[in-house]
Amino acid sequence: MTDSQPCIRLADERFDDYVLGADFSAQVCGYVSPVFNQPVAQWPLRTVRVYRKDYGIDPAEFARYRQPEAGGAIFVAWLGEQAVGHVVVSRHWNNLAYVDELAVDALARGQGVAKALLDVVRFWAVKQGLPGIMLETQNNNLPACRLYERCGFRLGGIDYLRYQAIDAASHETALFWYTLFADG
């Protein structure tokens, strides 16, 4: 990719093509056992044979958020002329901004794209008068857990059963992260 700073824009008519052409898969090497009020680096890790997880992102799933009256927004990160990541945000029932989806193309990871997208979510939430942000990831997405911790999010909830209906043998646990603006 490039060493430039990401530029963030609202999704436009090129969003579907970008999503369908990107690689949002991730390498999984294990499952962490989350512990409240403990740094992610200290969470126990059960390693597994490395595999790739494909998140199967569908650009139509959040298409309604491209309309101003939808109560949400889709922001796309660009490095130069290349779309490299996106975030979908909406107002959740609990009056927090909810990150419905955050994804960065595999070739653009480690270049500040996800942090830039989270910064835009924070700006959006403040402009909406919301008191904070919440999002969810899984215990096999250790890079995401580390990112959220670095960005000031705190682990606020653990759901061991969320993914059991999809795959009864799944070891995935849903981790809910929060940042409340009054926290600083």
TrEMBL record:
Annotated ranges, domain N-acetyltransferase: 34-183
Record flagged with keyword Transferase: yes
Keywords carried by this UniProt record: Transferase
SUPFAM superfamilies, A to Z: Acyl-CoA N-acyltransferases (Nat)
PANTHER family: GNAT FAMILY N-ACETYLTRANSFERASE, LD18367P
Nucleotidyltransferase is among the record's keywords: no
Protein name: GNAT family N-acetyltransferase
Top-level taxonomic group: Bacteria
GO molecular function: N-acetyltransferase activity
Organism: Pseudomonas baltica
